[in-house]
């Protein structure tokens, strides 16, 4: 199995019982973010980008699945810390060259999903603006 196939399999298993706010299987969000990527490395990160924050998966688990340091470091960068200011987090995530295109695609997908909600729209629009990626 390739690293991308492994990433898809572990992400699907980790998000198995989760639903998005609209009732869709949560894994569809990471898959959409993955499909927006141009490199294998960013595709792998994209499909796993919410695993640390939204599941019981740890960075050590990611290592145990066979992913290299670059992927684990990028996954660490794209994971928001407890009590971390949202815009500080977005800037930090985008400082990692693998995480940056994934975070941009994540923000754009969230903007599409929550665009009718003024609070969410403002949050994601501001985040894209501060990293120089106006929606």
UniProtKB/TrEMBL annotation:
Protein name, as recorded: GTP pyrophosphokinase
SUPFAM superfamilies per UniProt: HD-domain/PDEase-like (SSF109604)
Annotated source species: Ochrobactrum teleogrylli
């Amino acid at each position: 199995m390739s690293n991308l196939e492994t990433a898809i399999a572990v992400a699907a298993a980790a998000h198995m019982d989760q639903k998005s706010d609209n009732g869709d299987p949560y894994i569809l969000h990471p898959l959409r973010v993955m499909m927006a990527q141009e490199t294998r490395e960013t595709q792998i990160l994209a499909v796993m980008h919410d695993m640390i924050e939204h599941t019981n998966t740890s960075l050590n688990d990611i290592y145990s699945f066979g992913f290299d340091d670059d992927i684990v470091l990028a996954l660490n960068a794209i994971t928001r810390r407890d009590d971390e200011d949202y815009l500080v987090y977005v800037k930090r995530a985008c400082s990692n060259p693998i995480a940056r295109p994934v975070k941009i695609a994540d923000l754009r997908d969230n903007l599409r999903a929550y665009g009718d909600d003024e609070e969410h729209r403002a949050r994601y629009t501001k985040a894209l603006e501060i990293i120089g990626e106006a929606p």
